[in-house]
Amino acid sequence: MTVARRPNVRRRTSSGTPRRRPTDWEGQEQTALLVWLNGQKMQGTSVGELYDHLYHVPNGGHRNKKTAADLKRQGVKAGVSDLVVRQARGGWHGLYLEFKATPPRDADLADSQEKWLEGSEYQGYCAVLARGYEEAKRALIEYASWPRTQVVGPQLVLASGTDWRKG
Question: Domain range holding 41?
Fold first, then answer.
């Protein structure tokens, strides 16, 4: 059985011409931020050290209903910050950075995003909203300037799971 696909139809302006696809300002700026951070890594700067410890959580974007439902069942959660640094500094466990485009192209902070930032801070993570490339750079530079968080006391080891260290 073949399923008929709807043609990819874009909305039209009042004159009947197809509307332009929206520009992903946030995505473009976030990409520029990672290119800058990689350059800092290659130069051996302290902020560049964060590059290997930073990752993007691809929670946003448009998906069909089935894919969205599948991802939700697999653990995707609304509001999770865009960028995570798994390096503990300044007494925090790590950094959650919610990235927005530079004003006036920025979007409002969604309630779920605000709750995630608040909850992250409550759980011992530094949480920050950065509006644009320059603000995000400053936040990463400042975070990288802080001393590494020291673990106090012995660390527990899980008995459950497969020990990945044994190969």
Answer: 25-147
